[in-house]
Amino acid sequence: MLLEGKRIAIFNVANKRSIAWAIAQAMAAQGAELVLGYQNERTRGTVGRLAEQLTGVKAVVPCDVSFPEQVEALQETVGEKVGTVHALVHSLAFAPQEALHNPYLFTEREDFLTTLEISTYSLVALARAFMPLFAHEASIITLTYYGAEKVMPGYNVMGVAKAALEASVRYLAHDLGPAGVRVNAISAGPINTVAARGVPGFLNALELHQAKAPLKRTVESREVAAAAVFLASDLASAITGEVIHVDTGYHLMGV
Ligand code: NAD
User: Fold this and answer.
1) 90-149 pLDDT, tens per residue?
2) In what order do the strands lie in the sheet with 181-188?
3) pLDDT in tens, 139-182
4) How confident is the model at residue 255 (pLDDT cuts 50, 70, 90)?
5) 3-class DSSP state for residue 36?
6) How far is CA 153 from CA 43, 94, 166, 236, in A?
7) How would you class 216 by CB atoms within 10 Å of its CB: exposed for 0-12, middle for 13-18, buried for 19 or more?
8) What is the rounded CA–CA span in Å between residue 68 and residue 95?
């Protein structure tokens, strides 16, 4: 029971394949009380039904990060439902399809701004909204991908957004450290989710990963979730500003 007595907000679950859902299950199994976020009416019902499967879900709340007022409203809604919060999980991203299908050179300004707003700035906005809710020692966890570090053709503007996300982890770790808030990222290997299937060549990436990774297999979302449990727990009390690879070792390889 690594998370007994901890209250954790997770944004966003879309369906049972979402990494956020694997994290919710793992955290609930370790005794956490949860607030689960969903993006819109399209996912509300699914997330509500999933939430019923877990004991310890205290609230299911809307959060579309393209509406700043929705992010700001979380402070009050979450505060009312659970009071203080010990961890915030940011597991959401979006890039317009054209930006993933065209070469990066041709990324439109609007698509660039949308991708960075939804996938990167949202971490900053959520962290700020939650500051008044955080318990003395709190943990922020976000999800990133190796495409931030190396060119993964087809990942394009999302790679740039993830690079900015990883830099944001370091700057937020600096800003929030004095308040006892740790900020870390998990760089997950490819997992078959809705978001991942939107990336051209994703199935090839899965095969390549299996062939090249030292552990000769792809990662499972429960393994990513286990790392999130660790980062949210007191076991990780001196870890901040890190990007932890949970990718069966793929990032080690040169060829
Ligand atoms: P997913 O499709 O299940 O989750 C993506 C989430 O982003 C959904 O819940 C969706 O509602 C949310 N989202 C999109 N636009 C939003 C908006 N405007 N406001 C609020 N929420 C919004 O896919 P996933 O793979 O579980 O993705 C979760 C995170 O993990 C993402 O940051 C993704 O980049 C990252 N990640 C995924 C993989 C992978 O291979 N699946 C690998 C590394 C990192």
Assistant:
1) 999 999 999 999 999 999 999 999 999 999 999 999 999 999 999 999 999 999 999 999
2) 57-62, 33-38, 7-11, 85-90, 134-144, 181-188, 243-246
3) 999 999 999 999 999 999 999 999 999 999 999 999 999 999 99
4) confident
5) strand
6) 29, 17, 19, 34
7) exposed
8) 18
Specify whether the CB–CB gap between 119 and 95 falls below 8 A.
yes
Tell me which residue of 168, 164, 160, 93 sits closest to 128, measured CA to CA.
168
Q: Which residues are catalytic?
A: 145, 155
Give the residues surrounding ligand 1 with Cβ less than 6 Å away.
12-14, 17-20, 39, 43, 63-66, 91-94, 118, 143-145, 188, 190-191, 193-196
- Of 10, 11, 12, the one to substitute when testing ligand 1's pocket (max ligand atoms within 8 A of C-beta) is 12
Going by their DSSP bridges, the two strands 33-38 and 134-144 should be labelled as unpaired
List, for residues 227-243, the tens digit of each pLDDT value: 999 999 999 999 999 99
